[in-house]
């Protein structure tokens, strides 16, 4: 299919994906094309690496447990250590960043206990201590990504994050299938239902409830930024007085240049920053200009900060909670 169809699939359906028995037929109707054209385009985008999947993006700590971790690794050993970290299925994102702490990865697990056990096993396998930086407060974690330059709609709150009760076995089975992404079939939810021993209507209802209560942040096409030309990304971290961090986090989260914004803990003398933002762009200079503008606009000149550009992507998968 032409580039217009692929662009619309990538840009318009990262959220608000139709939750109905034949969602790809519904997409085709909205786009004015045949269903097989939609399925063919999505399969091609997945094969080319431009999307990782079509499906659910779960909210941190709402389904299972998760954290951001970092290691300071000698540069000559970085690839070997990254490979050791990647062998853990619980690791879904793993990047080299420009900092003394140069290896950054996200770890997810079915429970807090399993998460802590995994972090210990990763330290042992890697041979270096890690910083454990769990999410404390979220301001913007939609994880959608506008490709047409228009700001995405966003709702910003200062929302403290605390672990929820473990999910039941039927829900765990559904999560285990959803984390792989929707099968690109005419009736994908029916295929999922058959795998977990449920009905199609039960699967659709459960996904709908998770979306309503925020356990799923969004449901739709999950893009891979680098393959779409957004090769520069920086994690911008600030040391903000605790009494200001919620208000400032909300303000930064409203900025179109900010794709993620949240609070994580300081760690003694090792890590002094508590407010994290992600900024993506097509070039390093574009990101640097955006970061400078954000700091000036929000009066951050007096706050210690650092800008950690990613250089190598060692791993990028969907989170695995089950």
Order of helices and strands: HHHEEHEEHEEEHHHEEHEEHE
Tell me, rounded to a whole number, the average pLDDT.
89
Low-confidence stretches: none
Cα(first) to Cα(last) distance is: 36 Å
Structural class: alpha+beta
Strand count, sense and barrel status of the largest sheet are: 10 strands, antiparallel
- Please give the number of β-strands: 12
How large is the count of helical segments?
Answer: 10
The helical percent reads 25-40%
If you had to describe this structure to a student in words, what would you say it looks like?
- It contains ten helices and twelve strands.
- By secondary structure, the chain is of the alpha+beta class.
- The strands form two sheets. A ten-stranded antiparallel β-sheet has the order 5-2-4-3-12-9-11-10-6-7. Strands 1-8 form a two-stranded antiparallel sheet.
- The longest helix has 15 residues.
- It starts with a helix and ends in a 6-residue tail after the last strand.
Describe how the helices and strands are arranged.
Elements: H1 3-12, H2 23-31, H3 35-47, E1 51-58, E2 65-71, H4 78-86, E3 91-97, E4 103-109, H5 112-126, E5 130-133, E6 137-140, E7 159-160, H6 169-178, H7 188-196, H8 200-213, E8 216-223, E9 232-238, H9 242-253, E10 258-263, E11 275-281, H10 284-297, E12 305-316
Antiparallel strand pairs: 1-8, 2-4, 2-5, 3-4, 3-12, 6-7, 6-10, 9-11, 9-12, 10-11
Helix pairs in contact: 2-3, 6-7, 7-8
